[in-house]
Amino acid sequence: MGHKMHRDHGGDIDTAATRYGTGAWIDLSTGINRRPWPVTALTDPALQALPTGAATERLTRVAADWFGCDPRRVLPVAGASAAIQLIPRLLPRGRAAVLSPSYNEHAASLRAAEWQVEDASGISDMAGAELAVVVNPNNPDGREWHPATLVDLASRVGHLIVDESFADPRPDLSIATAAPVNTIVLRSFGKFWGLAGLRLGFVIADPDLLSRIADAAGPWSVNGPALEIAAAAMSDRAWADDAVVYHAEAGLRLDRMTLRAGWRPAGGTHLFRLYETPDARAAQDQLARAHIWTRRFPYSDTWLRLGIPGARHEWDRLADALRLP
């Protein structure tokens, strides 16, 4: 019988509650927007019927407009994570170079699909691989690469996957508008719009590859409510502008607070910040006792990642937990 490998992730609030007690937890472990796009009442068809082709086409057009690319190159999928699991099984297996440290599902899904996986510390280390994987901006340290750098990398590898799950506030980083034919761009809906429970993402790629992914995913892979909500949310540019401004300012506020607590900023994006702490386990424990959950990493004794608090009472609780005056 196969053994299911445990994969380390944020969002395991049940684990936190089991260890530190139930209550009003603030989950800062994921980097998901805590000020989500406001969902209003859904139309009955979105809830009662199978997803329609018209709804899928509408979301595809809206998403393509947001990404700045041809709708024929956009495929809605059941979360970027679904694509991460599926794509390695559709490409010819070989050597995969994953820019590391990064989101751990990429290497894990490639190994599960019987690829030879190598960690790469820089772009120059990836040349010659059958598949290269870059998260831009990177999770958890926020490293970023100019699109021209990634276009050049694409010319040196068999296929290139660029995971842009945290790129919605940063269109200047996106390769979606001019992705080479061998490049696959992944986008998340749940993170920036704060609705991760809808399990929605997008693949931007050559139409022939999108057709293979759609066939492998099967019919109705994205549910009707997700199609309707996402089309409305991604059309709401005023909300998106406000969200970008809030998170840009809030990230600086979080940096100031943690500096006063003796931590040092170590990177991040609009939706999360990474800190160098004296002891990540102790820092996580200190906040968890105040029912604030954060993310530490098995490969670092000092790194702690925090999402951005979403309301005044969350900021106040965090300041109290950090014992700030």
TrEMBL record:
Top-level class of the enzyme under EC nomenclature: lyase
Keyword entries, A-Z: Cobalamin biosynthesis, Lyase, Pyridoxal phosphate
EC number assigned by the record: 4.1.1.81
Reaction catalyzed: O-phospho-L-threonine + H(+) = (R)-1-aminopropan-2-yl phosphate + CO2
Cofactor annotation: pyridoxal 5'-phosphate
Pathway in which the depicted protein is active: Cofactor biosynthesis; adenosylcobalamin biosynthesis
PROSITE patterns for the chain: AA_TRANSFER_CLASS_1
Key word Lyase present: yes
Origin: domain of life: Bacteria
Record-annotated Aminotransferase class I/classII large domain positions: 58-322
Pfam families per the UniProt record, alphabetical: Aminotran_1_2
InterPro entries membership: Aminotransferase_I/II_large (IPR004839), CobD (IPR005860), NHTrfase_class1_PyrdxlP-BS (IPR004838), PyrdxlP-dep_Trfase (IPR015424), PyrdxlP-dep_Trfase_major (IPR015421), PyrdxlP-dep_Trfase_small (IPR015422)
GO molecular function, one term: threonine-phosphate decarboxylase activity
NCBIfam families: L_thr_O3P_dcar
Function: Decarboxylates L-threonine-O-3-phosphate to yield (R)-1-amino-2-propanol O-2-phosphate, the precursor for the linkage between the nucleotide loop and the corrin ring in cobalamin.
Protein name per Swiss-Prot or TrEMBL: threonine-phosphate decarboxylase
Encoding gene per record: cobD
